[in-house]
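ok trying again, last paste got cut off:
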Amino acid sequence: MNNKIVTSLGLVLLMLTAGCIGNVHDELIMELPDDWRTQTSRTISQPHLVQFESCLNMEYDLKASIAEEYRTQLLQAVEEQYYYGWGMSDDGMVAESAMDGDVSAGAAQPQARIQGEDFSGTNNQEQGVDEADFIKTDGYYIYALQGSTLSIMNVPTYGEIEFASNSSIEGSPISMMLRGDRLVVLSSYNPWNIDEEDALYEYLRWGGDYSQWRVNSLTKYTTYNISDRSSPEVIQELYLEGYNVDAREIEGSIRAVTHSWLNIPGLSSWLNMPSAYYDLNWDDPQRRTYREMIAYETIQANQEVLESIALEELVPKIYQRIDDQIIEHDMRSEGCGNFAKPMDGFSRGFTNILSLDLFSTTFDYESDHLLSNHPLVYASRDALVLTENAWDWWWFWGQDEVDDMTNIHTFDISVPGVTTYTGSGRIDGQILNQFSLSEHEGVLRVATTVGQWNRWWMEDPEPMSSSVITLVRGVDPQTDQQILLEYGRIDGIAEGERIWSARFVEDRAYLVTFEQIDPLWTIDLSDPSTPTILGELEVPGVSTYIHPLHDDMLLTIGMGPAGEDGLGLDWSSTRLSTFNISDLTQPAVADTLMLSPVEDPENGRWTWSYSEAMYEHKAFQYWGPKEMLAVPLSTYRYVETYNEDWGYQWHYEYVSKAVIVNVDEATGSMSVHGEVNHSSLLNHEDVNHWWGGDENIRRTIFMGDFIYAFSGAGITVHNLTSMELADVVTFDIEYPAYAYYDY
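nice, full thing came through this time. structure:
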């Protein structure tokens, strides 16, 4: 295959089209087929995944789907004169091959320091399922990603910290996973930043076209042997085409999910109109004729381009770096059996599940692929769940009867290194985040809102309402397909409102919905076939994250009300709440604590606060042994200064801190214990303006009687009794070089 020829062909066809029509004004020379603009009928029937019968079948279906996608965009451009093409952005059946490797190789030093007793770790959704994050600890060392640097810091005794090593990371680090003496760092790598001398460079270009890359982003997996923390050893470097979505680690077995959207040179989703078109009056009927002719010929050109491209160029690839050499791995199994599609049609995007063994001494992996939209990821110890929108916008352009629905795909991950498809289902509405999903004793529980996302083309989309749905595995008697069967549901929760937070805990569910005032819902799931609402409580403000303290108490974070009447939201505030749920039929507010923006009583100027913990649960660090909560708080205050030369001046100043809160688990009462302030590390000449907030405190770790606070500037250690500074390290880091289009 000569991709340069393919690209040139597409360009020549478009140039010829533009030239041909550009020479004609009063009379158009082409008569178009009668059925050229007839849309392919689309239905939403079944979401269940099916393997491709062969690679040839997969190639045919994939090319047909891509062609129809571009065709639909071009037809829309015919109807709408101002349309110039939207372009596309990144928003199988599953193979079963066990991986080799000696798990015992990951054994680290004796665990005298126990997570959950001596120190806190990542605030994971499910016990035993570790989520990737940019801060990790094993109780002896703290591992931090900042800029392009992996910093490993020793904790000789609690209250101390010292650098063990710094390692440069290729690309833009995202997160990492840790188990024993193995550390995997995930980073985003833009092809524009690859050096031309790098062996990887040639693999990512389309046939000599230096301006066209196969993908807009790579996700790199760098595995380190950290048995010597002072000198981490790179033992594996992998590059996956696509964007990082999420990753989970269970006892050394990793499931990493990426989403790939391949650029295909020569394809056009826009109308390249000749100059003669713009000489016509707006209401001249020939303008539409021009658009139709250009669209028709562009469709033909797109088809020729697709026919010239081999399947291997249309699917994501994985690249392994060994020294200065790149080994390309074909992600297709024999017969393309590790690729799957929904029965009723699919997106051209690929959701990739990569299963890796942290302790394998060889490159053993399993890759599974779904042709799907960008997914949401949830995992328990035994199940991996991916959800996606049930339809692409281009499928149903101009159709008002499309309902708001989500596809759910489930996989068994109970066997290390093996990911096995177990069935799919479809529910009404959209899912907020991973906490709207839960697997418990073989039952999948889902919280969903219908009408949350207004379909822009629909005159009267359905109104908002929420549901809790339970699903179990089953078999379709007609197709023999593995499916998810609806087992029970509650509809009509909070009409006109959407879900702002959800949490499933064993046989209970807690929901927070909001329109003008915050209702907390308690739901009984002890009989999953008949979910039952037990209680409802209205309280001003809204909770965006729910953290169970124990069976009788919830701790939440969110925003306070906008006014004294308790209605609306004050988006500049951060508030904590505790709820007594000892009687699920009558939940009650135990206490509220406003973490106010920085006060400026002298000037009375506007201030603002934000906590990452409101939307990122990993920033929310509750430490049960001391009944303490650490909340990062990024605030900006308006500062007024005066000098004789310049007069009055105003600017925003950072106040970067973590608020330590005492939480009485028995009563729910809360009080501020103290603060950790990093402002002195970043309020200086170079970093005191409002856009430097990446240096705000983002994560905290409790260790013994101390709290370790992490920001882009460094790590501070404070004594929890006195709140005095015990130790500090500052980062001397390098930042990644960003290309203009860095995703």
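cool. The two ends are 29 Å apart (CA to CA). The first strand starts at residue 49 and ends at 51.
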